[in-house]
Amino acid sequence: MKTLINMKAFKYLVSPMILLALALPVVCLAQTATPEKYVMELPQLNISDGVSLHIISPEPIQFVDLSTDNLIGDLPAENIARVKTGKAGAANKDDLGIITVVGQSFMAQYKVNYKNSETHNTITQIQIQPEDMQPLEYPKIAFSNQELYNFSMDILKKKTKAPLREVNDFKLSIQLNNVYVISDYIFLDISFINDSNLSYKIDGLKFSIEDKKIYKATNNQSLELKPEYQLYRQSQFKKNFHNIYVFKKFTYPNSKVMVIRLIEEPISGRTVEMKIKYSDILKADTF
User: Fold this and answer.
1) Is 170 exposed, middle or buried (0-12, 13-18, 19+ CB in 10 A)?
2) Which of 40, 91, 152, 228 could form a disulfide with 85 if both were Cys (CB 3.0 to 4.6 A apart)?
3) Average pLDDT score over residue span 280-287
4) Residue 196 is part of which domain span?
5) Does one domain contain both 151 and 109?
6) Is pLDDT at 30 greater than 50 in this prediction?
């Protein structure tokens, strides 16, 4: 910028040939920086007028960028981007723009072309492939949902030994099979067993830190814990339900316990409660 200002200030003192020589490097630099070659190397997507294209991500989408007004879209689900042609007349253009999808650990970009649905097969959905993902090199603060899923599936496949803790009530059992620690995360491997002939409709599964001894009802202090991730989301089970619940690392004193409450939908309302000592968490296996 400084060079351009000086050139403007002295344009009457410098010969045209010198001005041309000074300007050439700037022009060459601008040509070198153009991304045209890179754009042409992007994966190609075809889109038709009036038909939505659904881009499915393996992990929650953080944001989507549409480079032109030729494209509009939204996020109907946390891992789905829905894109279609924009304003009237945009579909007549061969090059509609670039879609950038950013997940928790990657970025994927696609060049979008218009294809007439009457002459070409219309694609309504694609899945982002590993070869299209560019890793985001952020400091490793947290695992992505995909990583938590992979860890949880590995834990689920392990052979279950004798449970660390087990409670039974109303012909229902809660088993704490094991506790694992991976980085700053605690994984609880829990099984629910129904020995009755009535299927169990889950109204809620709550985790909290509470006092071991309650002297007065008003003195009880309860701190609710919400899982960062859970492998399966199931509203009912007939006999067995095995799941993994993931929490950010937490601590609590010996005067308190972690409480797991499985609550059934009314009218039956069967509730089973398990208390976990902090010593169980401290004995967690590494993975």
Assistant:
1) middle
2) 91
3) 82
4) 147-286
5) no
6) no
Domain ends where: 118, 138, 158? Answer: 138
The verdict on pTM exceeding 0.85 is: no
Average confidence (pLDDT) over 74-88: 86
Start-to-end CA distance of the chain, whole Å, equals 55
Q: Is residue 4 part of a domain?
A: no
Residue 176 lies in a domain: yes
What angle do helix axes 2-9 and 16-33 make, rounded to 10 degrees? 160
**Is the domain of 159 the same as that of 130?**
no
Q: What is the pLDDT of residue 55?
A: 95
Are β-strands 240-248 and 185-194 bridged in parallel, bridged antiparallel, or unpaired?
antiparallel
What is the rounded distance in angstroms from the CA atom of residue 243 to the CA atom of residue 187? 10
Asked whether the beta carbons of 208 and 223 are under 8 A apart, the reply is yes
Distances, alpha carbon 167 to alpha carbons 171, 275, 276, in Å: 10, 9, 11
Higher-confidence position of 89 and 84: 84
Strands 229-230 and 222-225: unpaired
Query: What is the total count of domains within the chain?
Result: 2
Q: Is residue 1 part of a domain?
A: no
Report the CATH number that the domain containing residue 253 is assigned in CATH: 2.60.40
pLDDT digits (tens, 9 = 90+) for 134-186: 887 655 557 888 899 999 999 998 887 788 999 988 888 899 999 999 888 99
Q: Are residues 92 and 162 in the same domain?
A: no
Contact between 132 and 63 (Cβ < 8 Å):
no
For residue 82, count other CB atoms closer than 10 A to its CB.
16
Same domain, 158 and 266: yes
Weakest mean pLDDT among 90-104, 182-196, 247-261: 90-104
Buried b (16+ CB within 10 A) or exposed e, 251-278: ebeeebbbbbebebeeeeebebebebbb
Three-state DSSP state, 154? helix
